[in-house]
Specification:
elongated; ArsR family transcriptional regulator; ArsR-like_HTH; HTH_ArsR_DNA-bd_dom; 176 residues; single chain
C-alpha cells in the first residue's frame, strides 16, 4: 500500500498528529533534526530547554511518526544516547490548528536571525476570487517544487514562511 508521503499528497492529520504539530516548539525540533540527527541532550541545548522537557516533546514526535530514533551511540563520558531525525512527514499533513504553531515557530526562529540577514516583505492586494485562487495555486506549486528538489547537505540552510490572509487593517468600504 502506498502512503500519502510516497506520492506527495497532503492528508488530514489524525487527532494525535494534529496535537503533535500544534506546538511551535515541536515544529522547531523537527526543523533542527531535518538534516542532522540530534540527541535529546543536543536538542535541549539548541533550544535552551531542560532535557526532560525536550524528551517529552521528542517522545510525542516519535510516537506520531514525525521523528525516528536511530541507532544509539556513545555520547559524552560514554553515555548511551539516541539520535533522532525528522521523517519529513509533517510536510504532508493538513491540520485545522497548525497556523498558530507555525507562526509561533517562525517568530522564535526569526528572533535569532540578525536583522541584515532577514528578507521580509508585505504586500496588500485586492484580487477577484479567481486571481486569489491562482495566486494560492502558483505559490503552492513553487514551494512544492523546491521542497521536492534533492537536499544538498553542503548548502546553507534557509527557512521560508509564507502567510496569505484577509487584510484586517483596511477599513470596510462604504456603500455608494
Amino acid at each position: 500500500m502506498t502512503s500519502p508521503e510516497q506520492v506527495g499528497v497532503r492528508r488530514e492529520a489524525t487527532d494525535a498528529e494534529a496535537r503533535a504539530l500544534a506546538s511551535g516548539l515541536r515544529l522547531r525540533i523537527l526543523r533542527l533534526t531535518l538534516d542532522e540527527p540530534l540527541t535529546n541532550r543536543e536538542i535541549a541545548e539548541a533550544l535552551g530547554l531542560n532535557p526532560a522537557t525536550a524528551l517529552h516533546h521528542v517522545r510525542t514526535l516519535v510516537d506520531t511518526g514525525f521523528l525516528e530514533a536511530l541507532e544509539p551511540r556513545r555520547g559524552r563520558r560514554g553515555a548511551r544516547e539516541i539520535p533522532y531525525r525528522s521523517t519529513g512527514r509533517s510536510w504532508y499533513m493538513s491540520t485545522p490548528v497548525g497556523a498558530s504553531s507555525l507562526l509561533e515557530a517562525f517568530l522564535a526562529e526569526i528572533a535569532t536571525v540578525p536583522e541584515p540577514d532577514r528578507d521580509l516583505t508585505r504586500l496588500g492586494l485586492r484580487l477577484p476570487a479567481a486571481e486569489l485562487e491562482e495566486l494560492r495555486a502558483r505559490l503552492w506549486e513553487l514551494v512544492q517544487e523546491f521542497h521536492d528538489r534533492p537536499r544538498d547537505p553542503e548548502a546553507e540552510p534557509w527557512s521560508l514562511f509564507v502567510a496569505l490572509h484577509p487584510d484586517t487593517s483596511q477599513r470596510p468600504r462604504r456603500s455608494p
